[in-house]
């Protein structure tokens, strides 16, 4: 039987020290809703570093500059925060889609990002909101944009000894809002067949002045689609603009066929989701 070595440091430095100096494979434990499942049938010794005793990992602070999100804050805590929901409704609705009430009691946005699944719900919403990842390791701190964090299926740019220590999400400009939508074959408890995170900014007469359109579950990583944003900018979200954004998203998608959906279905649905999410984000931005 293989053994698991468990540590629960109370500081970022302590966690990095353990991760960097471990002679055996080391994993960070946030909510464990991915990690524990992945560790079933473990074949070799593993160091598990639980980061939930580190105060900054478990706090979400909203200020005039934006949201400083402790990566391990449980999604249930995030979705219960009306102040955060008011500023980033799309990010909160993405967190609210993960699993069930029970799963949300444990799972975190940081865990979702670090697990780096192509179907992760919060990743398109983080990218749409210009999130920046603060990574701390034995050589200090570095900042990586959310769109550059995931490198492939279950892979990201973090190196041995590094910890995702904070997710900084800038406060959106005036008249800006976001939305996240996904399609699943069931009503709940399934992973995205396609997803779309959209953020838009309006001027005083409702014309779109800036947009970020991100698609999920239709490529090995979530994709920022600048052509879809360009299709929206300068418009009032008329049908032609929304369709052009949808077409750009479908053109950018590189999906696979699996038991949840075919290439053709995913390509079409992601466009529909972009159209709907853009409409919702625009309506919110105008309120
Ligand atoms: C029943 C069920 C339903 C689910 N439904 C969904 C769904 O609808 N949508 C969805 O997107 N996901 C879903 N998931 C997957 C999972 O719940 C999410 O990915 C969740 O956000 C992971 O968060 P966590 O805190 O539990 O991460 P953990 O399991 O603790 O960690 C996940 C991975 O990230 C690493 N990690 C975590 N935090 C850090 C950090 N700070 N620094 C470095 N590495 C870190 C861990 O080592 C591990 O490799 C589901 C899971 C279950 C069990």
Helices and strands in order:
Layout: E1 4-7, H1 12-21, E2 26-29, H2 35-38, E3 46-50, E4 60-63, E5 66-69, H3 75-79, H4 82-87, H5 89-97, H6 101-104, H7 109-115, H8 122-128, E6 132-137, E7 140-145, E8 150-152, E9 155-156, E10 163-170, E11 176-183, E12 194-202, E13 208-216, E14 223-224, H9 226-232, H10 239-252, H11 263-286
Parallel strand pairs: 1-3, 2-3
Antiparallel strand pairs: 4-5, 5-10, 6-7, 6-10, 8-9, 11-12, 12-13, 13-14
Helix pairs in contact: 9-10, 10-11
Bound molecules: flavin-adenine dinucleotide.
Explain what the structure shows.
The protein is of the alpha+beta class. The chain has eleven helices and 14 strands. It has a five-stranded antiparallel β-sheet. α9 packs antiparallel against α10 and α10 crosses α11. The longest helix is centred in the last third of the chain and has 24 residues. The radius of gyration is 19 Å and the shape is globular.
Q: What is the CATH architecture descriptor of the largest domain?
A: 2-Layer Sandwich
Q: Which ranges are low-confidence, i.e. pLDDT below 50, for 5 or more consecutive residues? A: none
**CATH topological fold name of the largest domain:** Uridine Diphospho-n-acetylenolpyruvylglucosamine Reductase, domain 3
Radius of gyration: 19 Å
Question: How far apart, in Å, are the first and last alpha carbons?
Answer: 59 Å
Q: What is the highest CATH level, the class of the largest domain?
A: Alpha Beta
How much strand content do the residues show? 25-35%
Number of helices: 11
Q: How many strands in all?
A: 14
**Helix-strand sequence:** EHEHEEEHHHHHHEEEEEEEEEHHH
């Amino acid at each position: 039987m293989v053994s698991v070595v468990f540590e629960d440091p109370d500081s970022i430095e302590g966690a990095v020290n353990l991760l960097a100096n471990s002679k055996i494979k080391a994993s960070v434990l946030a909510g464990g809703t991915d990690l524990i499942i992945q560790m079933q049938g473990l074949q070799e010794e593993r160091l598990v570093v639980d980061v939930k005793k580190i105060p900054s990992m478990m706090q979400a602070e909203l200020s005039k500059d934006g949201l400083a999100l402790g990566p391990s804050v449980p999604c249930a805590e995030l979705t219960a925060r009306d102040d955060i929901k008011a500023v980033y409704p799309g990010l909160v609705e993405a967190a609210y889609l993960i699993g069930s009430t029970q799963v949300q009691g444990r799972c975190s946005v940081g865990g979702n990002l670090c697990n780096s699944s192509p179907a992760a719900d919060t990743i398109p919403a983080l990218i749409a909101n210009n999130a920046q990842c603060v990574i701390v390791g034995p050589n200090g701190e570095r900042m990586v944009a959310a769109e550059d964090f995931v490198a492939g299926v279950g892979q990201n740019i973090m190196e041995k000894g590094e910890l995702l220590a904070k997710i900084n999400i800038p406060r959106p400009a005036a008249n800006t809002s976001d939305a996240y939508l996904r399609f699943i074959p069931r009503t709940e408890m399934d992973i995205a067949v396609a997803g779309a995170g959209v953020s838009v900014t309006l001027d005083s007469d409702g014309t779109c002045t800036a947009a970020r359109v991100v698609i999920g579950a239709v490529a090995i990583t979530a994709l920022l689609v600048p052509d879809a944003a360009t299709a929206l900018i300068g418009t009032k979200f008329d049908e032609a603009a929304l369709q052009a954004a949808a077409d750009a998203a479908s053109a950018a998608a590189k999906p696979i066929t699996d038991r949840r959906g075919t290439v053709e279905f995913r390509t079409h649905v992601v466009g529909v989701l972009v159209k709907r999410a853009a409409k919702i984000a625009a309506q919110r931005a105008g309120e």
